[in-house]
Write a structure and sequence with these properties.
Helix content: 55-70%
Keywords: Membrane, Transmembrane, Transmembrane helix
Radius of gyration: 21 Å
Oligomer: single chain
Number of helices: 13
Distance between the termini: 15 Å
InterPro entries: Acyl_transf_3_dom
Protein name: Surface polysaccharide O-acyltransferase-like enzyme
Order of helices and strands: HEEHHHHHHHHHHHH
Organism: Amycolatopsis magusensis
Structural class: mainly alpha
Strand content: under 5%
């Protein structure tokens, strides 16, 4: 029988933090020097491809879905259902803010590129919620398979993702990309179920890490997969839309590292100073995820008052990555304020969700 595991909570918190930092670092908002209010998005990775390996550490959706699988099994063991209000509350609050805001932007005739950018930054990160809900709905089917076959059941979606990658070479239909996303993220989700059902042991960490590293290297150098774990304009395709075999190799390596470090992590988390911030992040994980791009936009819009500030509104070339680091604490402070407002308006906040 599975019980609450603080190491999985820590992994979930790390995954959320990685996604947030990753988005802040690759979401360059550029102001037109001749029309400052005309904003458009660019990827710094298109100008500095040598930073692609950084995305291997900040693209942490694999660990997130792994933790989600463990949590789903935990709820099943204890007869609990998914608390959808905790998921949908921040989404509804986000909609309540940005639907009128986008109408206001249209009413004041803001440039179309600015409205498109706002729409993309606010809504695109929420795709994971739909994938998550699909996998949770399928848990009653997936869990018995894991109990019977163990982590080997994940081989099936891996093979299906391989087929999708072959189709990419000739053009991937949009509908197939939508279907392929939950299939791909089912791989770490199934591994999380396996951990909760005691079918995935620490020694599997070395296997997953080795396979992930070797497969990832082979895909990069032999199969010429894009090096970035996120989409970059000009690449052959995006490893994330839908997730490719390289993304699954990365997820396997990340989960493998977690399994190997889990005993050490359990000891470290006994210290209150370490556990307290992780617990807080887990309590507000959904709000942090929903509002993090809003924090970026609020700081960016404020920056328009003083011109094209380095690392905020200029082209993501040259020293832009270094300048961007200076803005991360500002984004974090604004996000903390937005999260506090969300919590203040949400009654009955209690322990972090499993």
């Amino acid at each position: 029988m599975t019980t609450r595991d603080h190491t999985v909570d820590a992994l979930r918190g790390l995954a959320i933090a990685g996604v947030v930092l990753g988005h802040w670092l690759v979401s360059a908002v550029v102001s037109d020097p001749y029309q400052p209010t005309a904003l458009h998005g660019e990827s710094p990775l298109a100008h500095t491809p040598e930073f692609a390996p950084v995305t291997w550490f900040l693209q942490t959706l694999g660990p997130f879905f792994f933790a989600a699988g463990y949590a789903a099994a935990s709820r099943a063991w204890h007869g609990k259902s998914l608390r959808r209000g905790r998921l949908l509350g921040p989404v509804l609050a986000l909609a309540a803010v940005w639907l009128p805001a986008t109408l206001l932007l249209a009413a004041v005739e803001s440039p179309a590129s600015t409205r498109d950018l706002v729409r993309a930054l606010v809504t695109q990160p929420l795709w994971f919620l739909l994938v998550y809900l699909v996998l949770v709905a399928l848990t009653p089917v997936l869990r018995p398979l894991v109990v019977r076959c163990g982590p080997w059941v994940a081989v099936v979606p891996v093979a299906l993702v391989g087929v999708v990658d072959l189709i990419r070479l000739h053009g991937l239909p949009n509908w197939l990309g939508v279907v392929a996303a939950p299939v791909a993220w089912a791989v770490p989700y199934l591994l999380g179920l396996a951990l909760a059902e005691e079918r995935l042991h620490r020694r599997a960490g070395a296997v997953l890490l080795s396979l992930g590293v070797l497969a990832g290297a082979a895909l990069l150098w032999a199969a010429r997969y894009p090096a970035s774990a996120v989409g970059v304009p000009g690449d052959r395709w995006s490893n994330l839309a839908p997730p490719s075999l390289f993304t699954l190799a990365l997820a396997a390596a990340q989960v493998g590292v977690f399994l190997l470090l889990r005993p050490w992590l359990a000891r470290v988390l006994r210290h209150r100073a370490v556990w307290a911030p992780i617990s807080a992040l887990n309590r507000h994980a959904m709000a942090v995820y929903c509002w993090h791009q809003t924090a970026l936009l609020l700081v960016t819009f404020t920056g328009l008052l003083t011109g094209r500030l380095p690392g905020l509104l200029d082209e993501p070339t040259g020293d832009w990555p270094l300048h961007r680091l200076y803005w991360l604490p500002v984004f974090a402070l604004v996000l903390a304020a937005l999260t506090w407002l969300q919590a203040s308006c949400t009654p009955g906040r209690r322990s972090p969700t499993t």
